[in-house]
Task: inverse folding
């Protein structure tokens, strides 16, 4: 039986609180009190609640991206990502709407996605670095899809989860298709 790490327990505690309170009002003390930990334990793991949020998101994106090229294809990974966003839409909407860190959270999402996608391409090609054009296409794709996803989560863009997946697929730059599709 796998036990949860203190990071996972702290993130779970934060998500529980976010279901019932405004995120800006959740303090570190609230998070640790909710799960029975100390503030010292929190600060050994994270610098602040936004660091916890970024870690929690990165963990899930990493899990989804780890499956590309193993058992699942790119399309399935895009679906998994979109359904993750759909499943956690209320929580993510609160993060984007009621935090002071909207821009930071969006930037962090894009950087996390960029890092995972680039790492996957480097592992697949067994090279140490992508060329400049490929790197810029990875950045552009990640920033664009994160922006669209945030707009979708906030209800500013109306489409089904399946339509979102189709946009993710259709907007993939040609240079990246060779690494991800097929």
Result:
């Amino acid at each position: 039986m796998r036990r949860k790490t203190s990071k996972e327990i702290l993130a779970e505690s934060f998500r529980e609180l976010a279901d019932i309170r405004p995120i800006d009002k959740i303090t570190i003390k609230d998070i640790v009190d909710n799960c029975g930990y100390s503030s010292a334990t929190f600060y050994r793991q994270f610098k602040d609640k936004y660091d916890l949020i970024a870690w929690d998101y990165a963990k899930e994106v990493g899990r989804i991206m780890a499956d590309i090229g193993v058992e699942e294809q790119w399309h399935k990974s895009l679906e998994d990502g979109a359904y993750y966003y759909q499943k956690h839409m209320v929580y993510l909407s609160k993060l984007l709407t009621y935090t002071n860190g909207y821009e930071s959270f969006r930037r962090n999402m894009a950087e996390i996605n960029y890092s995972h996608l680039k790492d996957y391409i480097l592992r697949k090609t067994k090279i140490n670095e992508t060329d400049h054009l490929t790197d810029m296409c990875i950045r552009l794709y990640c920033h664009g899809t994160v922006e669209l996803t945030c707009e979708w989560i906030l209800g500013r863009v109306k489409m089904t989860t399946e339509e979102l997946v189709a946009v993710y697929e259709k907007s993939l730059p040609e240079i990246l298709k060779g690494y991800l599709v097929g």
Observations:
- The CA atoms of residues 102 and 155 lie 15 Å apart.
- The chain has a mean pLDDT of 88.
- The chain has ten helices and no strands.
- The chain has two domains: 6-45, 58-180.
